[in-house]
Amino acid sequence: MKKLTGAEIIWECLQKEGVDVVFGYPGGAILPTYDAMTKYPKIHHVLVRHEQGATHMADGYARASGKVGVAIATSGPGATNMVTGIATAMMDSSPIVCITGQVGSKAIGTDAFQETDVTGVTLPVTKHNYLVTKPGDIARAIREAFYIAKSGRPGPVLVDITKDAQQLTAEFDWEAAAPKLPGYRPNHRAPDSEFTRAAELINAAKRPLILAGQGIIKSGTTEEVLKLAKTAGIPITTTLLGIGAIPASSPLNLGMMGMHGESWVNEAIQQADLLIALGMRFDDRVTGNLKTYALNAKKIHVDIDPTEINKNVPVDVALIGDLREVLAEIQPQVKKADHADWWTTIKAARGDSAVRDIQTLPDNGHLYAAHVINDIWRLTQKRETIVVTDVGQHQMWEAQYFRHDEPRSLITSGGLGTMGFALPAAIGAKFACPDKDVWVVVGDGGFQMTSCELATAEQEGIKVNVAIINNSFLGMVRQWQEFFYDKRYAATPMTGPDFVKLAEAYRLSGLRCNQRSDVKATVTKTLADKKTVVIDFVVEKEDSVFPMVPAGADLDKMIRRPKQDVMLESGSDKEWEMPASPLPNVFTEKQVEAKALTGRGKSASARPAKKTAKSRR
Amino acid sequence: MAKHTLIAYVEDVPGVLNRVASLFRRRNFNIDSLTVGGTDQPGVSRLTVVVDTTEAGARIVEANLYKLVNVLRVDDLTHKASLTRELGLVKVKVTPDTRAQILQLVDVFRARVVDVDEKTITAEVTGTPEKIAKFELILRPYGIAEMVRTGAVSMARGHEPVSSAPPQVRTVTDHAHDNSGISMSV
């Protein structure tokens, strides 16, 4: 049996796990591991500019490839910088393994230089974590980490390894290090009776609806879900992370649900008599007010994680298990149906929205983010493209106007809503899929959080296309301030650097576009450039994302998109329609009081501050 | 809201108690009492957790406990015939006048005197948490110098098969009394 140092064992394990790239940043406590790296040239190491970037890259790599992403950092600040990326991966069930150095085992607990209780710090944001103090324990910890990260509901696992454990030697026995996890049961199977009950509900439904989540992408069951929907005539709507699970071009796919979902979708959810939730978790951004959510509907919930069942929405049938197995069990019991009346109802509601489609707005000299995103989609349709978004308005516009037909073609921080995610995650995705085009759609705010990773892209010589949707605002927060805080734009106006010059400072290409007529040329030029390109799309400052379900409001009480003919009338104060009934919980009592005092907005049902056509300029 | 008693068998590894305690805190459940100790099986510890929550909340706690990698098995004893015991040590102030009364009360509660000096008597009492609370209440007028309780430990009555079978799943409609979707008790 070979005797190796702990550091060598780490690399041997990574190699055995099939890792071809790791994202990391060296430092004192991880130095033995970095020193040993030189003996393992098959694994490519990407030097990031901030450890948060390393975790987002590992995450982007994992989401694009379906494999486990790996990030490495040193103790203390190196590890704590990773926390945001780990929490992001946790919320979106992304399999990553983080390896961190720790101070020597004898120094633990002495407040040694760069010491932090990293297992303690990351405990609530990892699926599991390890502190390893002996070289002989490293192999098993890493094997278990990979197994836990990718099995069941995937998630991040952290392995914290003391410096002496990296330096000392031990026998490396891969077989003996097989996972021993007596309490870990990632694979559940629902009882047969539940499958029968689920099929009965599906067969009896008149207005069924499939809620498609990221679980479909993780389990690779796009075909199976489409087959079920086709057989039983069931329309499908996706969550944000479920985008791409069902091709946007499929007639069965209605579009996205939830806070910024399509109006006809949210209306359909409220009218449905059966919701079939597949690999989604009834997030509050998806349900709106839980007290009024889909009250007419029976609910079937399929999820691999038992803790999701009844967490937010009580369900009638729970099918805990792997989606592929569950669908295989149900499919034979499902009868053919077309639900023509139900489809007619949905189509009628959808038709009403056509007049509100911003794509029908002729070029009026202003650059709208929705147009930019739609144009990028049109111009890249014939190419294999992955879009990675940040968080905010641009993310919602991307979800609405970029029509994804492939699973894993949209990568976005859903659950945690992490600004700064896009650029590093895109770099990770590019390493996972070097043959695909990778686009970053990012706001000017989020971009400035991790723009240092442009240096990583430059050093690695990789090409990502960065579309900054620049409205000189923290746009989504500004939108909330406009709607719910009387347009008091506290701390949301934001200046940025000259993004073109910034790109050039990193020896990359920079472009600027502020005309709708220039989008095509800009995108074409970007695609032709071999280097990473940063495009500064200077868009309308005070544009808002519609439709919108205000936080805590009923799902079908949306602020609809403005009608496009009205939008063109200058000075009109009827640019959008607020729902007829009062919006509950939108204003706190204090705000309502304050409004009454100032004589504005007598009640919670009052329309938020009027937006004039002027403010668009 | 009601008291729910959950039993968790966990691997005896460093940090496992932290993982369990952290789970309750971050999922916003209030622990009434939590005790840990060994079992007849080497490497396996046993926790008794009492939480104040709804029936549905108890199911969520149970499912979340199962999600912890080091948790081997979870039992909910709330609706099962079970034994619950707690130990309390009560050090009560005495004067020559009250000594006899206190000794009498100790006797009534089937507690045991474990230490005596000229100013205090320390009694050891075991029983249900309610009994210990009552014992404290009765002695309080005399002046309690110091008191400690261990927290509850629980065990099902009779023959309870120990199984490593995967958690069973059921839904609300199966069990009218049970306002929850799943039960993972074995």
Automatic annotation (TrEMBL), chain A:
Residue ranges constituting the Thiamine pyrophosphate enzyme TPP-binding domain according to the UniProt record: 390-537
Annotated stretches, region: Disordered: 594-617
Molecular functions per Gene Ontology: acetolactate synthase activity; flavin adenine dinucleotide binding; magnesium ion binding; thiamine pyrophosphate binding
GO biological process: isoleucine biosynthetic process; L-valine biosynthetic process
Organism of origin: Lacunisphaera limnophila
Residues spanning the membrane: none
Domain Thiamine pyrophosphate enzyme central: 196-329
Pathway it works in: Amino-acid biosynthesis; L-valine biosynthesis; L-valine from pyruvate: step 1/4; Amino-acid biosynthesis; L-isoleucine biosynthesis; L-isoleucine from 2-oxobutanoate: step 1/4
Swiss-Prot/TrEMBL catalytic activity: 2 pyruvate + H(+) = (2S)-2-acetolactate + CO2
Family matches, as SUPFAM superfamilies: DHS-like NAD/FAD-binding domain, Thiamin diphosphate-binding fold (THDP-binding)
Cofactor(s) listed: Mg(2+); thiamine diphosphate
Basic residues composition-biased segments: 608-617
Keywords, comma-separated and alphabetical: Amino-acid biosynthesis, Branched-chain amino acid biosynthesis, FAD, Flavoprotein, Magnesium, Metal-binding, Thiamine pyrophosphate, Transferase
Cellular-component GO terms for this entry: acetolactate synthase complex
UniProt name for this protein: Acetolactate synthase
NCBIfam families per record: acolac_lg
Keyword Iron-sulfur listed: no
Cross-referenced InterPro entries: Acetolactate_synth_lsu, AHAS_TPP, DHS-like_NAD/FAD-binding_dom, THDP-binding, Thiamin_PyroP_enz_cen_dom, Thiamin_PyroP_enz_TPP-bd_dom, TPP-bd_CS, TPP_enz
Key word Transport present: no
Cofactor note: Binds 1 Mg(2+) ion per subunit. Binds 1 thiamine pyrophosphate per subunit.
E.C. code: 2.2.1.6
Family to which this protein belongs: Belongs to the TPP enzyme family.
Residues of the Thiamine pyrophosphate enzyme N-terminal TPP-binding domain: 5-118
Pfam (any one): TPP_enzyme_C
UniProtKB/TrEMBL annotation, chain B:
Domain ACT residues, every copy: 5-79
PROSITE patterns membership: ACT (PS51671)
A molecular function (GO) term: acetolactate synthase activity
Known pathway: Amino-acid biosynthesis; L-isoleucine biosynthesis; L-isoleucine from 2-oxobutanoate: step 1/4; Amino-acid biosynthesis; L-valine biosynthesis; L-valine from pyruvate: step 1/4
A GO BP annotation: isoleucine biosynthetic process
Keyword terms: Amino-acid biosynthesis, Branched-chain amino acid biosynthesis, Transferase
Source species, domain of life: Bacteria
Entry annotated with the keyword 4Fe-4S: no
PANTHER family: ACETOLACTATE SYNTHASE SMALL SUBUNIT (PTHR30239), ACETOLACTATE SYNTHASE SMALL SUBUNIT 1, CHLOROPLASTIC (PTHR30239:SF0)
Protein name, per record: Acetolactate synthase small subunit
Organism: Lacunisphaera limnophila
